Amino acid sequence: MTEYGQVDFNIPELETELIFDTERDHYQVVHVGFSNKRRVYGCVLHVDIKNGKIWIQHDGTEGGIADELVDGRALPGLVAAQPEVGRWAQPSRSTFNGPIWR
User: Fold this and answer.
1) For 34-81, what is each residue's pLDDT tens digit?
2) β-strand 14-21 against 26-35: which pairing, if any?
3) CB-based burial of residue 94 (10 Å sphere; 0-12 exposed, 13-18 middle, 19+ buried)?
4) Which of the chain's termini has less CB crowding within 10 Å, N or C?
5) Model pTM score
6) So where are the chain's domains?
7) Three-state DSSP class for 98?
8) DSSP string of 17-39?
9) Superfamily holding 2-101
10) Parallel, antiparallel, or unpaired for β 26-35 and 38-50?
11) DSSP strand E in 51-102: where?
12) Which element (helix H / strand E) includes 12?
């Protein structure tokens, strides 16, 4: 995930923040600052780990982080420790309580 924090937009007033809450397993990449005299705030990537499963809460990356998770490139230690990485699942709308990775 730190790769996404290293993208340079050549806009000095725009920063990319990596927010890693390792105690609660919340991870985000956020853009903050100014561009063309306008305030910028946007979550690029938000990943949580709940009950040993990876939840992609928001993925605004160009290529998508799901493939990187499966390949072990995004969180190598976590995925290597969990060999049962599976497919994306989304419950029906009537029971929807968030997307899950199983």
Assistant:
1) 988 999 999 999 999 999 888 999 998 888 888 887 776 665 554 444
2) antiparallel
3) exposed
4) C
5) 0.67
6) 2-101
7) coil
8) EEEEETTTTEEEEEEEEEETTEE
9) XisI-like (3.30.310.110)
10) antiparallel
11) 53-59, 88-89, 100-101
12) none
Q: At 24, which amino acid appears? A: R
52 vs 54: CA distance, rounded Å: 7
The H-assigned helical ranges of 1-102 are 65-71, 76-81
CA-to-CA dists, residue 51 to 6, 10, 24, 38, angstroms: 29, 39, 11, 39
Q: Please give the DSSP secondary-structure letter assigned to residue 45.
A: E
Residue 100, amino acid: I
d(CA 3, CA 25): 18
Q: Which residues contact 64 (CB under 8 A, 6 or more apart)?
A: none
